[in-house]
Predict the structure.
Amino acid sequence: MHEMRRIIESFKVIDALMLFIAIVFGLSAYIAISISTVMVIFMLSFSIIQITYVVLTIRIRMRLNQDLKLERDALSATEQVFEKNAGSEYNNIKQKILESMVEKTLLSAFPSAYVLKNIFVPKKSGGTTEIDVMMINNDGIFLFEAKNINATLKGDWSKNKIVAEYPNGSHIEIDNPVLQNSTHFTHVANLVSKTKPHLIKNIVVLGPDTKVVRPEFMTIPSYAAITTIPSLVYTVNRRAQVSRNILSNEEVKSISEIFETYLGYTDEKMEQHIQNIKH
């Protein structure tokens, strides 16, 4: 669906170009009236063909947009049925897919970095907190929180709760992923012997069908960033600008070894993590 949307958008440029060419040929035909009847007929015919093409592609795109809307509504309805009946299993599958995409993107773009997925970090108060994906390199420690639902996220990003609005109009309150990721900061810092300014970064990665209302971007805390898979590498590089080479190679290796001990997703760990959240 996301790919189809990009294709439809690209047609707008082609339509504009074709319409411009049609206008040029139409004007040329008008100017050539006194020169050659054959030339006039050729230019007018070509102009009519171009305009016909533009009209047809616009009509096709309108139909495709309607189909995409129906598909989004159907996907939303299906997702909510799964959430109601299959519950956490369906959501976990979508979540794991996005986490794997984050991991693969980071490994490809930053081959010398340590990229860890599904880390259950201990809390001083007891229990654990789960970090979806962590990357450690010379520019710092990057914590990634993945959110993969077919909804538009609305609300104040400095508050504990935001609203997820589905395409069919229904909405629910969910935990703010920015603040969720912020809670990981303290637990990560407790395990790192020396903390430095700008050492730990907060990045939330949204799935392809998870949207954010743009005006509300202003409420996102300055210490955090919200991005998508296509923009992930760009976002990481921008966040790294304030802390270039903040860690030596030895520090990077030492920190990665600490968190490697907490690797490993299991059903038991996830169940315990869920219980920790509830209490």
